[in-house]
């Protein structure tokens, strides 16, 4: 993720680097870094593709991207504040070598904000080094649970049109026959291939899409929970809340509280 080609992350002769932008300018290009990186969304929302999975980062959420993992920035809200922190990874702990999406607890949030004072500092700084070493050392403890805010992109070309259709019509009732015709497959074959490629049934994929879209809408703070529920295709707030809780393991009201 690059905002300015003048800063070459992999050429920096320092173990940590902080990068804050009020309005991030995105490069929709696959790339990788030798350092691991922590991407924190202070406000707005951000989609990132990592290893053929699309992840959503709502406000007050972060993702840890391990070193040398190929990724790119996707769509994002009109106004977005991002803090990106790069770190050399020497630890053998499994956490640092896996993608992790998580809500940021208050203590970590304050530490990230404090680190803004070193944003774009190219030279080594003792205080920065000590502070960020402590932050990254404790990062696994801050992540109580990883959110499954991702959807897989299938490699089978027959599913390209199906995925596009699902993304365009996630809020409507989808008929298997229509999807089968799009892929030129029988309903049974489509369901089997889709599950093999994405790890989800078609109905579960649509459910996850709806919840991810609802998180995006809630992050914008323009709609109430009730309005959001109907916007993404649910016929009642109760049905939306049940679906949300089954995917996220907490309620929409809990998500809004975390955003304050």
UniProtKB/TrEMBL annotation:
SMART domains: HTH_ARAC. Residues 160-258 form the HTH araC/xylS-type domain. SUPFAM superfamilies: Homeodomain-like, RmlC-like cupins. Keywords: DNA-binding, Transcription, Transcription regulation. Gene3D superfamilies: Homeodomain-like, Jelly Rolls. PROSITE patterns: HTH_ARAC_FAMILY_2. Pfam families: AraC_binding, HTH_18. GO terms for molecular function: DNA-binding transcription factor activity; sequence-specific DNA binding. It comes from the Bacteria. This is AraC family transcriptional regulator. The lineage of its organism: Bacteria, Pseudomonadati, Bacteroidota, Flavobacteriia, Flavobacteriales.
């Amino acid at each position: 993720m690059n905002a300015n080609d003048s800063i070459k992350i992999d050429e920096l002769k320092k173990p940590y680097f902080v990068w804050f932008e009020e309005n991030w300018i995105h490069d929709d290009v696959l790339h990788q870094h030798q350092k691991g990186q922590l991407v924190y969304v202070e406000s707005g929302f951000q989609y990132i593709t990592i290893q053929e999975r699309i992840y959503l980062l709502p406000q007050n959420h972060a993702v840890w991207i391990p070193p040398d993992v190929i990724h790119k920035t996707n769509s994002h809200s009109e106004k977005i504040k991002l803090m990106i922190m790069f770190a050399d990874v020497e630890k053998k702990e499994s956490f640092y070598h896996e993608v992790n999406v998580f809500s940021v607890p208050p203590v970590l949030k304050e530490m990230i904000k404090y680190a803004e004072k070193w944003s774009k500092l190219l030279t080594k700084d003792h205080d920065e080094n000590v502070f960020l070493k402590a932050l990254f050392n404790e990062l696994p403890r801050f992540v109580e649970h990883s959110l499954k805010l991702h959807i897989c992109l299938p490699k089978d070309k027959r599913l390209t049109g199906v995925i596009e259709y699902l993304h365009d019509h996630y809020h409507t009732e989808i008929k298997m026959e229509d999807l089968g015709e799009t892929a030129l497959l029988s309903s049974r074959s489509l369901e089997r291939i889709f599950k093999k490629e994405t790890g989800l049934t078609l109905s579960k994929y649509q459910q996850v899409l709806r919840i991810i879209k609802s998180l995006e809408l809630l992050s914008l703070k323009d709609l109430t929970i009730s309005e959001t529920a109907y916007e993404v295709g649910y016929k009642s707030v109760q049905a939306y809340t049940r679906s949300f809780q089954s995917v996220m393991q907490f309620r929409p009201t809990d998500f809004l509280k975390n955003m304050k």
